[in-house]
Design brief:
7 helices
């Protein structure tokens, strides 16, 4: 790609636009790396603990990764056109929102199955992995910073709900550690599914109402 100093010669507005989009792309790449780390840590935590709530949270984070790639593509399209592409951003937001629903449905069905009987859950790896997941999600919010368009708005909202889902899984792990029935893990997983439905519906609502610049 040409240096933005060459492409925006003589046009401060275009130059600012290029700088903003390049910065946006860089943020998505940073967040995608954090998301992959969170996903791996929580998957390992889920396998070691046999807890489904942390697995549910990892799937929520995995949706992040897919949306970051969509965000990179949209921002690169705008760089090529040297102009905003609101329609592409809206389609990206719709796809981000709708992908939550099948994932949340699968989580909900499996969570309900796990409520049928006592599960042998080791709380310690569940607790440690969700603490790391929560810290990673807070880091993602920090990377996101201020929002300027519908894509960043969706990413920021998703990051906030990631933090909430990690907190729910952490509470489940702590409850099991202090002697509460393992059914709390199933209820926490159901709660994460509800958070995902809420996330998807909110992001679709934002896209439908054209919250973009």
């Amino acid at each position: 790609m040409e240096s933005h100093h060459i492409r925006c010669a003589g046009s401060p507005c275009v130059c600012a636009f290029i700088v903003e989009r390049e910065a946006e792309i860089e943020r998505y790449w940073k967040q995608s790396r954090v998301a992959v780390l969170i996903f791996l840590v929580e998957i390992i935590g889920g396998l070691l603990s046999h807890g489904f709530s942390v697995i549910s949270d990892s799937l929520h984070v995995f949706v992040d990764f897919a949306f970051y790639l969509t965000g990179v593509k949209v921002a690169k399209d705008e760089l090529r056109a040297l102009a905003p592409q609101p329609h592409s951003r809206q389609i990206g937001a719709y796809s981000h929102g709708f992908v939550f629903f099948p994932v949340a449905t699968l989580i909900a069905f499996h969570a309900i199955e796990r409520l049928q009987g006592e599960q042998g859950i080791a709380p310690t790896p569940l607790i440690y992995s969700t603490i790391l997941g929560l810290l990673g999600n807070i880091w993602q919010v920090k990377i996101a910073g201020k929002v300027h368009n519908i894509t960043e708005k969706g990413v920021w909202f998703h990051n906030i709900t990631d933090c909430l889902a990690s907190a729910v899984a952490l509470i489940a792990g702590l409850a099991i550690f202090f002697g509460v029935t393992s059914a709390v893990d199933g209820w926490a997983s159901l709660g994460i599914a509800v958070i995902m439905f809420w996330s998807g519906a909110t992001i679709i609502y934002q896209a439908r109402n054209g919250h973009h610049h």
